[in-house]
Specification:
Oligomer: single chain
Number of strands: 14
Structural class: alpha/beta
Shape: globular
Order of helices and strands: EHEHEEHEHEHEHEEEEEEEHH
Radius of gyration: 20 Å
Helix content: 25-40%
Number of domains: 2
Length: about 325
C-alpha cells in the first residue's frame, strides 16, 4: 500500500483524490492546506488519516510515501523543494515551474537528495494517447510530418481568478497551451529556439488571452499549437503522416476515441477506435508513479526530468517571443 499526501486542495486535487480510490494499492494518507478547516473537511471526505493547516507540516507526517503538489503554478517550486529536501518523492502538477531557474532548482534538489520527482503530465498516460504513441512508433501512418492541436475555453473575466490573475501564473499558455506543446515534444522533441514562432493577445490583467505557436523541425516537420481563454475551440488534435492521419477526438488531451485514416493510392480506409478508461484519468499517472517507487526509480522513464526541462524551456521561449513576463 502506497500512502499519498496532497498539498493544495483545489479542484484538481479533488479529482486526483477521487481517482486514487480506483487503485487497490493506493491510499490518501495526508492532506495539507493553508486552512485547517479546509484540510479537515477534505480529509473527512476522502478518508485521509492526517490533515494539516500548513503546507510545511505535512513533511513530518509518519508513513507518508509520496506527495502530489497541486497548488497554483507559482508555488510549485517552493512546495516541491519542501518535500524533496525532506526526502519525500513528488508528483508535481503541470506546469512544473514558472521558469527554467525554478525547474533547475527542483531537478537539482531531486538528484542531490536522490528522491523521485515527476511532472504530472497525465495526458501521456491516458490509454488512447499511449496507443497513439505506439502506432506512430510502429509507422502505421508512415513518417509523421505535422502535428496540429488546440485547447481553448471561453472563460468569464474575473481579475482575481486563477485564470486571469497574473500573480497566480494565469493566462492560456501555461494552463492550456502546455498540452499542444507536450504533444509536439512527445513526438518531435524540443524545437530549437530559433525555430519557434509565436504570437499572443493579452487581457486587461496582462496575461495571454490567446497564444499560437509553430515549431519547425528538420526534414520539413512542423507542429502547430493554439490556446485561448477567449473562445471555445474544437479541442481536437491531428497527427498527419506520409501514409495517413490520426485524429484525436475532443477533448483530445484525455480522449477515449481516435480515428485512423490510411491512404493507399487514391483509396482511403478509415477506422474509428474506442479506447475507454475508468475514472477521470489521473489514476493512470498515479499508478505509474507507484510503479516507479516500487522499482526504486528516481525518475520516470516515460516522463524523465530532461523531458520536463525541455518542456519548461520551450514554454519559456514562447513567453519571451510574445512578451509574456511573470
Amino acid at each position: 500500500m502506497i500512502n499519498w499526501g496532497i498539498i493544495g486542495l483545489g479542484k484538481i486535487a479533488r479529482q486526483f483524490a477521487d481517482d486514487l480510490r480506483l487503485l487497490p494499492n493506493a491510499r490518501l494518507h495526508a492532506v495539507a492546506s493553508t486552512s485547517q478547516e479546509r484540510a479537515d473537511a477534505f480529509a473527512t471526505e476522502f478518508g485521509a488519516a492526517h490533515a494539516f493547516g500548513r503546507y510545511e507540516d505535512i513533511v513530518h507526517c509518519p508513513d507518508l510515501d509520496v506527495v502530489y503538489v497541486a497548488t497554483p503554478h507559482p508555488f510549485h517550486c517552493e512546495n516541491t523543494l519542501l518535500c524533496l529536501e525532506n526526502g519525500l518523492p513528488v508528483l508535481c502538477e503541470k506546469p512544473f515551474a514558472m521558469n527554467m531557474a525554478e525547474a533547475r532548482r527542483m531537478v537539482s534538489a531531486a538528484r542531490r537528495n536522490r528522491v523521485f520527482l515527476m511532472e504530472a503530465l497525465w495526458t501521456r498516460f491516458i490509454p488512447a494517447i499511449d496507443q497513439v504513441f505506439q502506432m506512430v512508433e510502429k509507422g502505421e501512418i508512415g513518417e509523421l510530418h505535422t502535428i496540429k492541436a488546440d485547447f481553448g475555453f471561453k472563460m468569464p473575466f474575473d481579475p482575481n481568478s486563477r485564470v486571469f490573475n497574473k500573480s497566480l501564473g494565469a493566462g492560456s499558455l501555461l494552463d492550456l497551451g502546455i498540452y499542444p506543446a507536450l504533444l509536439a515534444l512527445t513526438f518531435f522533441g524540443k524545437p530549437e529556439a530559433e525555430n519557434i514562432s509565436a504570437a499572443a493577445t493579452f487581457t486587461a490583467t496582462d496575461v495571454d488571452e490567446s497564444c499560437a505557436f509553430i515549431f519547425q523541425y528538420a526534414a520539413g516537420r512542423m507542429a502547430l499549437g493554439h490556446s485561448t481563454i477567449a473562445a471555445n475551440t474544437s479541442l481536437g488534435a491531428h497527427l498527419y503522416g506520409t501514409e495517413g492521419t490520426i485524429f484525436l477526438h475532443p477533448r483530445w488531451h484525455h480522449t477515449q476515441k481516435i480515428t485512423v485514416s490510411r491512404y493507399d493510392g487514391r483509396q482511403e480506409s478509415i477506422r474509428d477506435i474506442d479506447i475507454p478508461y475508468i475514472g477521470r484519468g489521473y489514476n493512470y499517472e498515479a499508478a505509474h508513479v507507484m510503479q516507479c517507487l516500487e522499482n526504486e526509480l528516481l525518475e520516470s522513464e516515460i516522463i524523465p526530468l530532461e523531458f520536463t526541462l525541455d518542456l519548461v524551456e520551450t514554454l519559456e521561449t514562447i513567453r519571451e517571443k510574445v512578451g509574456l513576463v511573470y
